[in-house]
Design goal:
alpha/beta; 21% strand
Length: 345
């Protein structure tokens, strides 16, 4: 439920926002592509816009280059109803870029340009602490942990949000090429693990973090910590599994004709957070949680049916229509591989 004033709870998303260049043709390498589509991206920003598209309140905290791309991205956040008071602009570094290869199965490979990019240079003293303290949910990934000063800014923001009573949501969103080594990635990703109330990982991330190829409940529960309220493992075409202190289970996926999986996991997370920000009772009620996750699955599934993350994020009415209208579902649900819970985005 909303506050006594009727205002919806605020979800603040912290981290990177960048430009994805997506090939106009799937199934070719970067060098073979004849052209690219410019698409706004960055997992934390995608989550903020996903929340807003679904009718929730969202804000973004991060740093962009004081360049055309940076101001374009800030404008996209505003256009999509996301509070941009947490954005800083850096005059000495550019907005990050990523070239994305779309394989024939809709999966992606990345080439990043950020040495350093503006998002890496966010300092603790640049944080809008008032905005962060107003969050009911504070969401973040792990890319902001890779280098200083952004790592210190991340730690400060997380600390301030937690002290103010926010629910902490963590999606590591592993991008292994950005880390100095796999060992460093594991160490830093796990360094803040026990701070989060909600954690979502993909099956790929589960294998990476546990160094265990066995995808079962025992492996997943090795990531459990005593303060955790919800652990989610997304399993591609097999749906997702959920774990709480009192129950665990799985929710099946929606099969779709996947065009581009970029942003699917962010859409899933945004839908989840939007539904629990004002009523966390689903974290203790299995039937309600399954309903929440089914809606999140639908949002992610829809996102895979279009190219680009942000343009594909659904509205609340689109997601409800997807779930309820069998005829409309048939336009989406041609056989293919994937749902909401595609690898992390």
């Amino acid at each position: 439920m909303a506050s006594s004033t009727g205002e919806k709870g605020l979800i603040v998303s912290f981290g990177e926002m960048l430009i994805d260049f997506v090939p106009t043709v799937s199934g070719v390498s970067l060098s073979e592509s004849s052209g690219f589509l410019k698409a706004p991206g960055g997992a934390p920003a995608n989550v903020a816009i996903a929340v807003s598209r679904l009718g929730g309140r969202a804000a973004f905290v991060g740093k962009l280059g004081d360049d055309d791309f940076g101001h374009m991205l800030a404008g996209i956040l505003r256009k999509n109803g996301v509070d941009d008071q947490g954005i800083n602009f850096d005059k000495g570094a550019r907005t990050a870029l990523a070239f994305v290869t779309l394989r024939s199965d809709g999966e992606r490979e990345f080439m990043f340009y950020r040495n350093p990019s503006a998002d890496m240079l966010l300092r603790p003293d640049e944080l809008n602490l008032e905005l962060i303290r107003s969050a009911k949910v504070f969401h973040y990934g792990s890319i902001s942990l890779i280098t200083e000063p952004c790592r210190s800014a991340h730690m400060k923001a997380m600390e301030v949000a937690k002290e103010a009573g926010a629910l902490l949501s963590y999606d590591p969103n592993l991008r292994e090429p950005l880390w100095p080594s796999p060992e460093e990635a594991r160490t830093q990703i796990m360094s803040i693990w026990d701070k989060a109330d909600i954690i979502k990982v993909s099956d790929v991330e589960l294998e990476f973090l546990t160094e265990n190829k066995t995808m079962d409940d025992k492996t997943a529960m090795s990531l459990w910590h005593s303060n955790l309220k919800l652990l989610l493992v997304t399993l591609g075409e097999k749906g997702c599994t959920y774990f709480t202190k009192n129950f665990h289970g799985s929710v099946e996926t929606f099969l779709v004709d996947a065009v581009d999986t970029t942003g699917a996991g962010d859409s899933f997370v945004g839908a989840l957070l939007k539904q629990i920000v004002d009523d966390q009772s689903a974290l203790e009620d299995e039937a309600r949680l399954r309903k929440v996750l089914r809606f999140a699955n639908a949002c992610g599934a829809i996102t895979t049916t279009k190219k680009g993350a942000i343009p594909a994020l659904p509205t609340d009415s689109e997601a409800l229509s997807f779930l309820k209208d069998k005829k409309k579902r048939q336009t989406y649900l041609k056989f293919s591989k994937l749902c909401c819970t595609a690898p992390p985005c």
